[in-house]
Amino acid sequence: MTKYTRMNKSLLAMAVAVALPNAYAEEAAKDDIEHIQIISHYDKLRTEAGSATLLTEEQLGEYEYDDIHRVLSSVPGVNIREEDGYGLRPNIGFRGVTPERSKKITIMEDGVLIGPAPYSAPAAYYFPQTTRMTAVEVFKGPAAIKHGPQTIAGALNLVTRSVPEFTEGAIDIAAGGDGYTKAHGYFGSVVNNVGFLFEAVNVQADGFKELDGGGDTGFDKNDFLAKFNYRLQQGDFEHNFGLKLSYADEVSDETYLGLTEADFAENPYRRYAATAPAEMDTEHQQVMFTHSMSSDNLSLTTRLYRNDYERAWLKLNSIEGKSPQEILLNPEAEDNLRLFEILKGEQDSIVPGAANFLTMGTNDREYYSQGLQIDGDFTFKLFDFAHELSFGVRLHEDEIERKHFEESYEMKSGVSTLVENSKRFTTLNTEHTEALSVYVEDKVKFDALTLGVGVRGELMDMHYQNNNNANDWLDKTTRIWLPGLSGFYQLSEDAGLLFGIHRGFSPASPAQSSEIEIEKSTNYEFGGRFNDGVTEFEVVSFFNDYSNLKESCGQSNCGDSTQQDAEFNGGAAHVYGLEAQFSQRYPLNLQLDIPYSLVYTYTKGEFKNDRRTTFAQWGEVRNGDPLPYLPEHQVSFNIGLSAEKWRTSLAVKYIGAMPEAAGRSWTEGTQEFTLYLEGQEVPSSTTVDLSASYDFDNYGQVYLKVDNLLDEDKIVSRRPYGARPGKPRQLTVGYKYQF
């Protein structure tokens, strides 16, 4: 993809946003077939069992976040590991599962799996553009029984804009520090019963890191969406036919290489010269046909979908076979000093008596996922009890094809350049999965008690093929059934108790042998909910009992190319905690309100067995060792001041310290394993964000936001190679106009 092509796409996105015609607008329909609607957000007291959180379009617009990490900071039970400061490659976990590449949660867009290959390679290197979402739904515990394949932690559903019932549109343009710009626009209407929507987004920045020798360290992302629908009334049934087409691309100057502790203390936003060639280049396309039909007691939605994703990420792998992690942890060592100076561009690769080349690897991958999904709800009475039956089936197929290669680069006069004819392939393989998923859940109302009984089935056929060796292949079959029980007992008009128990699992990849066990757990939750129209309060305790905790090694969390995509058994483990959220809106006078909310999460995760592993985050673990990258305490506090035409909001987020590794190094006979970062922690951090807006009625809205108001310099991770910072203070000013 040429820079000229990318520039044209960026200009096209801005042109679409600015050139939308003015027209009269009515409020769009609030319900949409793409919305899962498990959350009864129109009721004063939500009576669904299980933990579920809905972030509305109004809430998403309050801080104008582009980063899903910041969006989810107000959701209890979410654990995150930041990486690049912009949320380009999110690392999200729920209830203590590893946040690494969000691979242990089910990620959906409009109710359909959106990860590149959710079964074969669940690491979510593609993540939808948060800017264009109109709702975000988070399901944990028994509330996630309808969504898989990852069923231990829960599911995240991102909801795109609905086709409007009347003509409407909007533009949203913004600019900020470090070359940040955003251009977002949409327009939709209905012509002869055919509705349509066109939407375009471009977000880009020069980056906040300072590359030795100069150069951009930012990104450029484009996103285009087109939707069409047709509604038809036929007897007692209303039919809705929909077509969704989307395209997204990204070019980002991103690297896995961080800094030594000393260099981070001096300038946390420095980037070494060796990372100058690094670049991620991606494209994503989606096609989805949807049909829904509904009557008074039956609704049925059918989705036929196809996602294609390709990426090429050029990044530093090693210097003369030595991992950058080894060099950065001990840069003054005799055998590391020269290599470290090459990383910084302070020495040339070739000098009299020595030649040390940089090895840059391009992880070139192509993915697809496709399937047919049917979801339904049926309400009926049986033996004088009200039943709400939910059911679904999904035929799904996905695949990843890896075409990884490495090339040698020479550092000369502070500039890293490609050595011609040095390309060599390192990984050539394909992993493929065909899966049948089914679920059924019956909710029965017994006076004040609503009881839900359900089961989910995941039936998978997986295949691995080494494309370098026709005789190196593996087929395996997995059949697993996951029961669940949930309930809600309404104590009064304003309060109720919820409880649940369900089995969860996470599949092993097609390439793993039978020695790698399926990750399984039994999950419990109990809590209560209160809402009297002024005060909302919810508290939920949870306990996840793992029979086997499983983890996989990627370059983002291991940095060891010899263990790329390997998986490891962790054995028994416990994760337990408490999630609490409280919110009120206090009327200061007739013109002013003070909305405020508090979210608190306590999570404790620990191994319940002794074992020796060669996994880069575990090493030798013992009973009671904590899980890595899991803070015990997280607090989010939001407070605002709002009037009829203006508002201001302040968000404070505290994240406790997190261990970088679980266990310790070990030696057994001639075998030795060194656990890098043993005993180290990601320090605790407090981040403050500010936003404000003023509405000019028919002339649009002006908004201002400041991310990281206190300009906190924080280490967000030391993996895979060295200390890396979060985003510094960034001021952004924007303008919105809706019609």
Describe the secondary structure blueprint for this structure.
Elements: H1 3-18, E1 51-55, H2 57-63, H3 68-71, E2 78-80, E3 92-94, E4 106-109, E5 112-113, E6 133-140, E7 154-160, E8 168-176, E9 181-191, E10 194-205, E11 210-211, E12 219-234, E13 237-252, H4 261-266, E14 270-271, E15 279-294, E16 298-319, H5 324-329, H6 334-343, E17 350-351, E18 354-355, E19 358-382, E20 385-412, E21 415-418, E22 424-446, E23 449-466, E24 473-490, E25 495-506, E26 519-531, E27 535-552, E28 567-587, E29 593-607, E30 611-612, E31 620-621, E32 633-642, E33 646-655, E34 658-659, E35 666-668, E36 671-673, E37 681-682, E38 685-695, E39 701-707, E40 715-717, E41 724-725, E42 730-738
Parallel strand pairs: 4-7, 11-14
Antiparallel strand pairs: 1-6, 2-3, 4-5, 6-7, 8-9, 8-42, 9-10, 10-12, 12-13, 13-15, 15-16, 16-19, 17-18, 19-20, 20-21, 20-22, 22-23, 23-24, 24-25, 25-26, 26-27, 27-28, 28-29, 29-32, 30-31, 32-33, 33-38, 34-37, 35-36, 38-39, 39-42, 40-41
Describe the structure in your own words.
By secondary structure, the protein is mainly beta. It has one domain: Beta Barrel (Maltoporin, Chain A), CATH 2.40.170. It contains six helices and 42 strands. It has a 22-stranded antiparallel β-barrel. The protein has a five-stranded mixed beta sheet with strand order 1-6-7-4-5. A hairpin with a 4-residue loop joins strand 24 and strand 25. The longest helix is centred in the first third of the chain and has 16 residues, at 3-18. The radius of gyration is 26 Å and the shape is globular. The model is unreliable at 1-33 (pLDDT under 50).
